[in-house]
Amino acid sequence: MSEIEDHLVQKYENILLKAQQYKMPEREMTIFDTALKNHHENPITELLAFFLDPNGKHNLGDSFYNGFIASIKASEKYQDFDFGGFLNLSTQQITDNGKFIDLWFETDTALVIVEVKVYHDQNNPFKDYVTWGKKKLKELNGKNKKDLSLQKELITIVFCPNGECYTDGWLGLSYRNLTTEVKNQLGAHILQNPLNKWGIFARDFLLHLDSFIDLLETNMESLKFVVDNMQKIQELVKLRDDVYQEIIDHINNKLQVALGEEYEPNVRRHTWDGTPALRFIGNNWKDWSDTVLNLHIGDHPLSCSVSLFIQHPTEEIEKKVKQYLAKGIYSQTQPWYEQKDQFWCMRWEIAQFDLDEVTKQIVFLHKILNRVELEWK
To answer: Which domain of life is it from (predicted)?
Structure first.
């Protein structure tokens, strides 16, 4: 590759430094990510109901209840409403028309109906829910009909990632609003009892709810940065690919010199856990034995590994290879087998990438593989 001019180096360094500001942190995985893959709403409803009940066996008291009430009171409509204490709740309530209400709970002063939404459109039979709620409310208020001050109010909530609801009479409550308020309430309980398993599950549940918000939100600053710098970024991508090709050409040239004109170089590009893996193989070989250069691009300084794969090994071949490997300068891992013992494998870790040193190691290994494929099989 021709030398890059100083002003281009400076330009690329500047764009990389600026890009660091927009790097999106990897979201912390939760236990719920492994299980709640299909019908999200039912398990979210059941977990929410479990933690909402201050009398539940989670030993977190009224953290979730107080957080839920605080998130409702964040709306102007209910900011002065006194909900009082928690009394009762139920999930999957069947209406007279056979429809299901996700969750309802009763407080000293209110009957709160909650419809939990994740991805689906808000096309539920809301009128049917309200009809059931009014009937239930009449039953509850009938017990206190002599004291009007004890009459409860019906409050209807759509609990969804973005908190948007366009159905008259229903309040949209966002996941973020709830998780923020609950975290404020939950902190003291976790500090007092950090080993409470339900405290750990509650934290994971809140992170799980936050993850749905991340899916909906578009990072406009990052988007604008990429759009504004698309040409420069494309230049960097091309520069990276050119460097990979330079590495391949350099190694293949050395292999050709070391193994002679009979050697037919070939390279297959793979990706291992998001990192480039360059597989070097001889097309004139009997089987698919090869060496693989894996660049650990997440490390600074750049490190790498070189792996050896011998297809259809025999005990005699393994013994001979080990004798030759003993002459190498790098210590290898213990050998292992892959693909039902079809491949015999070893790996060498190199702490800092140096093209000349890496090339020497690959040439050393290919001299062995050349004998394996052309003489020992």
So the answer is: Bacteria
pLDDT in tens, 310-357: 999 999 999 999 999 988 877 788 999 999 999 999 999 999 999 999
DSSP states along 213-245: HHHH---HHHHHHHHHTHHHHHHHHHHHHHHHH
The reply to whether 191 and 58 lie within a common domain is yes
- How many angstroms separate the CA atoms of 248 and 173, rounded? 55
Q: What is residue 217's three-state secondary structure?
A: coil
CA-based angle 19:24:25, to the nearest 5?
Answer: 125
14: nearest Cα among 188, 182, 229, 249: 229
pLDDT of residue 120: 61
Structure tokens at 63: 């953290």
Burial of 188 (0-12, 13-18, 19+ CB in 10 A): exposed
Neighbours of 313 (CB within 10 A): 22
| Residue whose token pair is 């794969």 | 309
Q: Using CA atoms, how far apart are residues 322 and 373, in angstroms rounded to an integer?
A: 16
238 and 156 within one domain? no
- Beta strands 336-338 and 303-311 are unpaired
